[in-house]
């Protein structure tokens, strides 16, 4: 019988500390949000299986620390990425201004084979804060920046409310697929996940 093919797609989330990178990832993968802020130390990742047409993909989403003292960890985490997500807080002009630094840092550290066409996605997070009244970065300004960098896809989200998070990550997964630097994992049709000595069916009904 043919084996099911699963492809690993590596996604890196970058942005200043506190813009909501971890919250976005948790909302997408676990549908959960926490009001308790805890800085990411070094890097962390979550995985989520997604299906496109008849193929199964594992999205491996890396959440890296926004603090500068951890940026030296970058090379190992950035290498082999299929898509890079740049996140800023629409209520913080500084976090928006730093997008360019994060983008340049990624291209230097990751050294993608085709930097001109490497897929980025920009997310403006925290649109729910204060009903939008404390917002300082306009959608027009953000879209203009994305256009100047080669028409980067742009999404405005609320990790807290779950607004546009699913849509943004669908775009991220699609762009990661287009990058072509994918690693394939072959899975047998039957996977013995139990330690029981009971005889197991040879058919997989998953």
TrEMBL record:
It comes from the Eukaryota. GO terms for cellular component: plasma membrane; vacuolar membrane. One of its GO terms (molecular function) is GTP binding. InterPro entries: P-loop_NTPase, Small_GTP-bd, Small_GTPase. It is found in: Cell membrane. GO terms for biological process: protein transport. Pfam families: Ras. NCBIfam families: small_GTP. Belongs to the small GTPase superfamily. Rab family. This is Ras-related protein Rab7. It comes from Pyrus ussuriensis x Pyrus communis.
């Amino acid at each position: 019988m043919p084996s099911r093919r699963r492809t690993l797609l590596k996604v890196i989330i970058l942005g200043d500390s506190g813009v909501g990178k971890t919250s976005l990832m948790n909302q997408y993968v676990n549908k959960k949000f926490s009001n308790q802020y805890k800085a990411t130390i070094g890097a962390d990742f979550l995985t989520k299986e997604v299906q496109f047409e008849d193929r199964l993909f594992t999205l491996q989403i890396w959440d890296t620390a926004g603090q500068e003292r951890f940026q030296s960890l970058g090379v190992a985490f950035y290498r082999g990425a299929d898509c890079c997500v740049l996140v800023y807080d629409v209520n913080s002009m500084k976090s928006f201004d730093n997008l360019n630094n994060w983008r340049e840092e990624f291209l230097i550290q990751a050294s993608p084979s085709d930097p001109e066409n490497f897929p980025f996605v920009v997310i403006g997070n925290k649109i729910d804060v204060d009903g939008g009244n404390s917002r300082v970065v306009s959608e027009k300004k953000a879209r203009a920046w994305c256009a100047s960098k080669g028409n980067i896809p742009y999404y405005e989200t609320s990790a807290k409310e779950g607004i546009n998070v699913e849509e943004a990550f669908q775009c991220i997964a699609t762009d990661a697929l287009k990058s072509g630097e994918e690693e394939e994992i072959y899975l047998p049709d039957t996977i013995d996940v139990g330690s029981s000595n009971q005889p197991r069916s040879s058919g997989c009904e998953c």
